[in-house]
Amino acid sequence: MSEVKRKYVIPGELVAEGSYRNVSNIFRVEQRYYSTRIGLAEVLEDSVRVIPLSGPYFPRVDDLVIGKITDYSAFAWEVDISACLPAFLPAQSVFGREYSPARDSLTNKFAVGDLIVARIAAFDRTRDPLLTVSDNGLGLVSSGEVVKISPIKVPRVIGKKGTMIKTIESGTNCRLTVGQNGLIVIDGSAEGILKAASALRLIEEEAHIADLNQKVQELISKTSGVERNE
Amino acid sequence: MSSLINSEGKRRDGRGIDELRPIKMQVGVIQNANGSAYIEFGKNKILAGVYGPKEVHPKHMALSDTAVLRCRYHMTPFSTDTRKNPAPSRREVEISKVIREALEPALILTDYPRTAIDVYVEVLQSDGGSRCAGVTAASLALADAGINMLDLVSGCAAGKIGGIPVVDLDDPEDKEGDGDMPVAILPNLGKVTLLQIDGKFSSEEFEKAFSYAREGCMKVYAMQRKALMDHYFGAEESI
């Protein structure tokens, strides 16, 4: 732990010099490593990385996302996953290989406006993101509230080995489904949902603070139905 | 010869030949934009907004291996002394293009294939050197939007008034002076991304004016850095 060197950086700022194996949000000119984002730079023994403080969501294969059905055709749903490109959920991945547009109606499963939890099955520069809902915990969101946070803060909401999300879940008796695109479904009692939502707001606003877990814990144990006027 | 600069080397507004106008910058001013910045550069007041990466419309404009950067430099009708027609003029089309070309080398557009990034530079009040101020604000807005960048872009003009190379022309100096030279650089990489000249410069005058502009850009960069740090980290500069 004592080896970690941290500093605030802006794009183009020199983060480290030398030779490092793992980098993220960094570009290298010979032996010099520059940041490509505004954020917190960390220099470890063999890695340099910048934890960004702002940025868009760019889909990646295997990401868990929460999306809203915006349209459907005979063969697929179009889903808004709040990314730069619309995602598609093919009917075959829901109804199976024998799907026939004559027999099965897409609206029986998901209607326009429905929220779904999905996984990105395929995405590369030749196609729009392709979703799948055939896995445990995926599919229609039937209850709960949705909170949107900056996608860049998602790792902070989850925390190291899931500690942060566990803190919120156990403190509020809610279940959190965190999409990599920054949408979070909170399911539980009304009071728990309010508490969890205010905890998420805190994380979003103060993501670069070091002892965030403790702050969240304090907030959860303190606010009991006070923040109703949000 | 000219009243633009007096015998003591002072200009009309009291600046020396290597002095910039007062500059103010602020990041994150438009809530609905992905990134935004506001800059006051002398009497220039310019707002920059970044939207994207997003889907490209019309779709045939999309590039399969990189994002397309689209810029619009626009002067509001009330930005000048007499009303300016809001339709894009020949000059605005040109400046949109040079701003795009000044920003492009700083961005890692290949990280966002098949998308578009829109940059809007809106001049609310105009003075000399608005394209440099526009580039400066746009690069702040891009950094605020969290687009991967190699470096910020800092812009500052130089010029020649009364036969003497000076930095950062204002509007009367631009109109009555002998030449204008807008410059934008990538300050950490030491690259030039915008260099235009109107008027005649001898090679010595060019060298002098260019070095003034570059020093001006470095001063602008320090202010850009401060604006970003203030917005994201508040007073705490280091941990």
Which secondary structure elements does this structure contain, and how are they paired or packed?
The complex is a heterodimer of chains A (230) and B (239).
Chain A: E1 5-9, E2 14-17, E3 22-24, E4 26-29, E5 32-35, E6 39-43, E7 47-52, E8 64-72, E9 76-80, E10 87-90, H1 92-95, H2 106-109, E11 115-124, E12 127-132, E13 139-140, E14 145-148, H3 154-158, H4 163-172, E15 175-178, E16 183-187, H5 190-205, H6 212-222
Chain B: E1 23-27, E2 35-41, E3 44-55, E4 68-75, H1 90-103, E5 115-125, H2 130-145, E6 154-161, E7 164-167, H3 171-176, E8 179-186, E9 191-195, E10 198-199, H4 203-233
Parallel strand pairs in B: 4-5
Antiparallel strand pairs in B: 1-2, 2-3, 3-5, 6-7, 6-8, 8-9, 8-10
Helix pairs in contact in B: 1-2, 2-4
- CATH homologous superfamily name of chain B? GHMP Kinase, N-terminal domain
Please report the total strand number of chain B as a whole number.
10
Q: What's the CATH architecture name of chain B?
A: 2-Layer Sandwich
Q: Into which percent range does the helicity of residues of chain B fall? A: 25-40%
CATH fold node name of chain B: Ribosomal Protein S5, domain 2
Q: Give start-end ranges of low-pLDDT stretches of chain B.
A: none
Query: In this structure, how is the largest beta sheet of chain A organized?
Result: 6 strands, antiparallel
Order of SSEs of chain A: EEEEEEEEEEHHEEEEHHEEHH
Estimated structural class of chain B? alpha+beta
- Spatial separation of the terminal alpha carbons of chain B: 55 Å
Largest interface: A-B, 29 and 38 residues
Describe the fold and architecture:
- The complex is a heterodimer of chains A (230) and B (239).
- With 230 residues, chain A is α+β, with helices and mostly antiparallel strands.
- Chain A folds into 3 domains: 5-52, OB fold (Dihydrolipoamide Acetyltransferase, E2P), CATH 2.40.50; 64-140, OB fold (Dihydrolipoamide Acetyltransferase, E2P), CATH 2.40.50; 145-229, Ribosomal Protein S8, Chain: A, domain 1 (2-Layer Sandwich), CATH 3.30.1370.
- The longest helix of chain A has 16 residues, at 190-205.
- Chain A starts with a strand and ends in an 8-residue tail after the last helix.
- Chain A has helices at residues 92-95, 106-109, 154-158, 163-172, 190-205, 212-222, and strands at 5-9, 14-17, 22-24, 26-29, 32-35, 39-43, 47-52, 64-72, 76-80, 87-90, 115-124, 127-132, 139-140, 145-148, 175-178, 183-187.
- Chain B is an alpha+beta fold.
- Chain B has one domain (23-233): Ribosomal Protein S5, domain 2 (2-Layer Sandwich).
- Chain B has a 5-stranded mixed β-sheet.
- Chain B is globular, with a radius of gyration of 18 Å.
- The interface between A and B is medium-sized, with 29 and 38 residues.
